[in-house]
Specification:
By secondary structure, this protein is an alpha/beta fold. It is built from eleven helices and 14 strands. A hairpin with a 3-residue loop joins strand 13 and strand 14. Bound molecules: oxa(dethia)-CoA (UT7). The site of oxa(dethia)-CoA has 21 residues, from helix 2, helix 6 and helix 8.
Amino acid sequence: MSIKYYAKISGTGMYVPDKVLTNFDLEKIVDTTDEWIKTRTGMSERHLASEDQAASDLAYEASLKAIESARIRAKDIDMIIVATISGDYAFPSTACILQQKLGLKGFPAFDVSAGCTGWVYAANIAKQFIENGIAKHILVIGVEILTKITNWKDRGTCVLFGDGAGATVISRAKERDISRFIDSELAADGTQHELLIQKAGGSRLPATKETVKENLHTVYMEGNKIFKNAVRSMYNACEIVLKRNQLDVHSIDWLITHQANLRIIQALGKKLKINENKVIINIEKYANTSSATIPMALDEAIRSKKIRHGDIVLLASFGAGLTSGSLLIRI
Ligand code: UT7
């Protein structure tokens, strides 16, 4: 495709619910310890949505901040893409509900299901719509309330997740603007889809009393199999975009990866041979917020002025599907 315009990130925002659940709180719920969680995952605490909060509520708060930081008005938005696997409903899409909350209508709004890689997939879709000239400002959000589909009796998964939303505005870059999406790479390996799955509630196994009793509507994950795949798939996605753009790792100012496990983040950093001071990590505060981890980390790093205008940022993620992908962006 010939590129008519470049796409850039023009605004970011994030929102996490007020309630905090620490590792010590989890010690009272399942047979676990603060020490196990910290050393195996790097997590200390996570935020939990309240009973009356759904994904679109979190997405709405994050969106307002992203729209403000992009210095546009909500009515300038011409598309909404929400990456989520824990939306308000199975249908309609959370993007349509968010559109209504923002007081907007009359343009495309849809969800993307790519697990934790969701925001990377969604940002890549937005990039195409900007580059071909169809849209000017696209709201792209990663939002998750996985704690509502968590099996609180399974210590192997319930300690890992937190709730949150990360929003970005992806806009048409002005001609002389140095900020732009440089490249991206997406992949999926459907042969491994059973490793990370919500087994019941869809057309394969509709919800019944039994499925609920057996907790089949909650997150099922074979953690250590995913672990091995995670480093390999993110490394491949990063290598492809670096090579294609004749860049070596020294040209990268910042690496932001999906925050699923500190050991995965560090292993990827080491494999890429990137200076550890260039790796953005916030897993200790929010745990794994799935599709929200990358836009949340991006927002924090931009607001704290760690990431500055002109910096080259490499983003990489992996998740249910199994999906994976990378984005190379100049902020
Ligand atoms: O974001 C989407 C993708 N998801 C991921 O990226 C997750 C990737 N996987 C991981 O991060 C890690 O595999 C986990 C953190 C989920 C687990 O760490 P691990 O080092 O792979 O542990 P393991 O599953 O191999 O379990 C080791 C031991 C087991 O005990 P035994 O069999 O050795 O006696 C588990 O029963 O740790 C035990 N264990 C726990 N102990 C205390 C598992 N969960 C816990 C826990 N507290 N919460």
